[in-house]
# Entry
Amino acid sequence: MDNIDTRPKKTVADSKTETTRTILYKDINGSNRLFGGRLMEWIDETSGITAMRHCGGFVTSASVDNLRFRRGANLYDVITLVGRVTYVGRTSMEVRTDVYVEDPKTGMRHMINTAYMTQVCIDDEGKPKVIPYGLEISGPSEQAEWEGALKRIELRKKRRLEGY
Ligand SMILES: CC(C)(COP(=O)(O)OP(=O)(O)OC[C@H]1O[C@@H](n2cnc3c(N)ncnc32)[C@H](O)[C@@H]1OP(=O)(O)O)[C@@H](O)C(=O)NCCC(=O)NCCS
# Structure
């Protein structure tokens, strides 16, 4: 769906979601590093909340398009996840979630991970439901994310045709 649609629009800021956690023993592996699977769980949760805030209803995770582990994180690190809607289709939304480790001395955040997930708005039967709001794009970085999402949709279609 292009961004010329007749639905009322919400901004990216309207649904932006930030969650903060401390890495505890239950979250680490034998090397005192954060389990990748735990981080994926937190990304799924943040992405889902972001999408729910945009569509004003329930959502289900349809796919993870891109998940890049740039750096690890360690016991007691403070982790912040920031979810932003990058694209809104008819019933699906793409959400980018950036993950940061916070330096306790300076408060500076260092990005360790970025993920793009597709969330689908669903009705009470779990069937896809039309999202009542489009996305208001503001500024070049939101425009670039929207165009990136269109490319990821094309790549996904191509992969599906190739049987992945
Ligand atoms: C996601 C789900 C609701 C889609 O249902 P469906 O009957 O295939 O629906 P459609 O083919 O009409 O697709 C609906 C939308 O989802 C998108 N979509 C479907 N499968 C997708 C996938 N694998 N990746 C990205 N987007 C997808 C479609 O492009 C469409 O988007 P649009 O309306 O914005 O154009 C369904 O496949 C499902 O329930 N999957 C299980 C989800 C789940 O349990 N998640 C938790 C993981 S354990």
